[in-house]
Amino acid sequence: MYRKILSFVKIGLNKQVPALGLGVFRIFLGLIIFQEVVFLYYFRHLIFDPIPFLDVASPSIHFFLILWGSNALFLTVGYHTRFAAVVNYFFWVIFTTFTPMWQDFDGGFDQFMIGSSFLLIFLPTERALSLDNLKLKLKFSGLGLRYHPPGTVSVLSYYLPLAISLGLLYFDSATHKLFAEHWRNGLGGWLPSTMPYYISAIDMTWMLNNEILQKFIGYSIIVFQFIFIFIFYFRPFRVPLMMMGAVFHSGIILSLNIYPFGFGMLIYYFLMVPFSWWRKLKESLQRKAPALTVFYDQQCPLCNRTRIIVEHFDVFKAIEFKGLQDHARQYPELNNISDDQLLEDLYALDQNNCLYAGIDTYIQILLKMKYTAFLGVMIRIPGIYHIGRQIYRRIADQRARLTCDENCLISTENNSQEECTFRNIYEHYAGTLEQRSRRIAKFLVVVIVLQLNSTIHYGIFYRLDNLGKENEVGQVLKQISNGILSLSHVFLGITPHALYLHDHLHGYNHILALTYKDSHGQERWLPFVNGEGRLIAPNWGRVQSMWANIAVTPNIEQKYLYKFIEKVTAFWGVKVGLNLQDAEFIIKMKEVEVPVHWQKDVRNRNLKQPWVDIGKVVWKEGSFHIEIADIDLETL
What we know:
The chain is α+β, with helices and mostly antiparallel strands. Among the domains are: 20-147, no CATH class; 287-404, Glutaredoxin; 507-635, no CATH class. The protein contains 28 helices and 11 strands. The longest helix has 33 residues, at 433-465. The chain is globular. The two termini are 49 Å apart. InterPro entries: DCC1-like, HTTM-like, Sporulation_signal_mat.
């Protein structure tokens, strides 16, 4: 196996491909991380406080969340990309290890993001659509020298994330599905979509009531997950797999309320987009002719830097730069302007031959680049425009006094030498092609072994043990496997992907909700679980997992139920304006159906089931207690 992997790695390292898809992947992964940190910050009191707003967590958590969010933005725009990736990985590991974020509020998303964040450290995602590329252009370019950073990466930069984050995960998940009766019946996508706690607000009844379609989807998912890792790198299968995966995960986003996981998986399919598609997309977006021609002083270092910056952000190729020394007198509109005046300002001509100068040139640049048009409009506002013109005039007057002497040329030469030195240092530490191939191959072998440990342990042996086939040797192997899994779980995010299986949904016949009485004595639903039994926005993702996977389960444990009722009522009670010195909430329960065989209209029947009051939650002077009917919670 090792030799086959090594051969595969060598071939992959030798094949260079455009880095654009990798840059798009980094941008969207950074945005997902950012939105998740924003989510954590919004629910910081619910997640991190022992008792929301009453027994609060350390304020340092809020500070670190802000740092994490800022770092996610750096990662998104590609600024100090590798360092930002390391910091992001550090935050995921620390928060999932030392806070309740994983133990009580996870659902599998954190482990997926730990694995993705670890891979991101080593992927050259900064080679496309990044500020790091702009830094290199500015650093190594000079008068008469334009530096273009590498725009290609080895094809392994695409294959490895797909194999590890998708392929192994899918294979593990499919193995678990074989032990779930409703998945074996082809209803793995249908059953969770009928359960009120898991569904979104979009009514999918027209699909759910088509038995043949639902079974086709269910069996297709299992087959897709089993074969993905074996065929995704073959060209003929790439687009069909990409389309199927995009449809499956878009369906998760639209139909279920675990959208972070759905988006997290979906962005990996940017790595499967054929390179010719990216090229055609780029060509279709770029203009055939520039919308604005800007004239700049070729001997001015600041003007050259301006050109580099504008061209870096001009993704639609709307701006064309021409040197004053070579082209100015070819345009009649510039003939009436003296040479000294031309050197004092930045001039531009649009397609209608309208002439702009100074700050008006920058406004036109922003307008013509389209996606920056809002900034151009803002600068036009009276007051802002006049302040901007004064700032521009001060900078332009200083620039006009600058000349390029021998120091300019020496700096350019030094930049070129520094670039060579940097490349030599990188090659020294990165190693030869053979060394890099062996390192990557060994890493892949380790990851495969660790993933197989998880899959075989929890996907096969654990479930066979539940059938009564336990022995002493098996128990020893289980302990060893658990020890290995605990480390790979924390640092690589390798975890069993046994989501929405029969052992979780079987017997899930009752759900709970909470209401309160407003100042007029009218009963209202807490903005958590609504009258249909759905968890409403923004209580999705990890908050949904807390309530539907830990607090309320087929076999409810009183300590978890009471713990999270306390958290939810304290958090949302304060949010809706209740005083926890004297507040009362009503606990409601209703029956739901979770059949393992297809039935028509289960979703609507579950949503329309009536509620029954089974108890109340009383807050008195900041203290909490529950008065509940004589019901055996474990049998619910």
